[in-house]
Amino acid sequence: MIFSTLIEAIAQILHMVITIYIWVIIIAALITWVRPDPYNPIVQALMRLTQPVYAFIRRYIPTVIGGIDLAPIIVILGLQFLDLFLVKLLFGLANGL
Questions:
Q1: N or C: at which end does the chain have fewer Cβ atoms within 10 angstroms?
Q2: Which PANTHER family match (predicted)?
């Protein structure tokens, strides 16, 4: 009982973290469409949160196609896969115990 509740709590927290990070990626992508002030602390925080992941993706996949950077879409798809697969797997494991 305690172990299944722990796994369910971990799955819930993982789902929340993935959802928040997806929103960070969406906001950062929308901000790049305008000219943000690079010295703004919010813009700097968004870039520090997203650029390392984009750089990792860009190392293996060419993401700029026709002048459009597809790295945010690739990251969001990967996070959605993790959310659907891993979180549901953890919930199923918790319900099976």
A1: N
A2: PROTEIN COFACTOR ASSEMBLY OF COMPLEX C SUBUNIT B CCB3, CHLOROPLASTIC-RELATED (PTHR33219:SF14), YLMG HOMOLOG PROTEIN 2, CHLOROPLASTIC (PTHR33219)
How many angstroms separate the CA atoms of 55 and 16, rounded?
24
Which stretches of the chain drop beneath a pLDDT of 50?
Answer: none
Is residue 39 helix, strand or coil? Answer: coil
Please give the Cα distance from 42 to 40 (Å, whole number).
6
Q: Token pair for residue 5? A: 């509740």
Extract long-range pairs of 46-51: CB within 8 Å, 24+ residues apart.
Answer: 49/21, 49/24, 50/24, 50/25, 50/75
* Domain segments of the chain as ranges: 2-96
DSSP annotation of 84 reads I
